[in-house]
Target: Membrane protein
Amino acid sequence: MELSFYILCLSIATLVATSLIFGLKFLGKRNYLLGFEWLVVTFSASNFLLYFLGGVEFSYRISYFLDAFSRGFGIPVIATAGLMAVTHRYKPSILSDVLFFAAAIAATAVLVSADFMAQPRPYFYVAMWSAFSVYLAYFAWRLLSAGEGLLALGVLVVLLTSQAIATIYDFYKIPGDDEQALFYVLACLAWSLMCVVMYYAYGALERAEKNEASLSSMLAAR
Model:
């Protein structure tokens, strides 16, 4: 087998590992929106890896659906709502979490199967991810305001790399990359970076919020 095949498998395995580890960490923080969305990425990437290793067609169909879920709704809507816990103190109930995922699953089913979505689908993905990128820019600004310049830079790198992947996904092929192996390597690494950086960025704003609350309590006590 060619070296590119092994590099691709390694990049997919990296995404499986990072999304699993940090998905579980988010669940430990009781952020179920981010935790379960990261685990959706884990399951999608795992099936993608099975497809490449063994040509399992059913695994490809699972990965295709979950990829559409994450690109269309999971990251732009569910992950954004999860991140808003530290930017807007948004903490939905368990029922709301369930409804988020149920609505996203139903919407994804329409997105991938409805004939009328065939042509606008790629543009929809880009539009949704662009909205997420706008929120990431705001998230980076909040980190910078909290004195977390390095993490703010990390979020900006996530913004640029993931937006680039989202933009070229359905519209552009890298010259010489006929089988899109290089593209998928870059996509998996970009999403792996997102899984890692957003966990630590979330934690930084979470600590900043707690410190601010403690300072306010001390001043009120005086």
In short: Residues 8 and 112 are 25 Å apart (CA to CA).
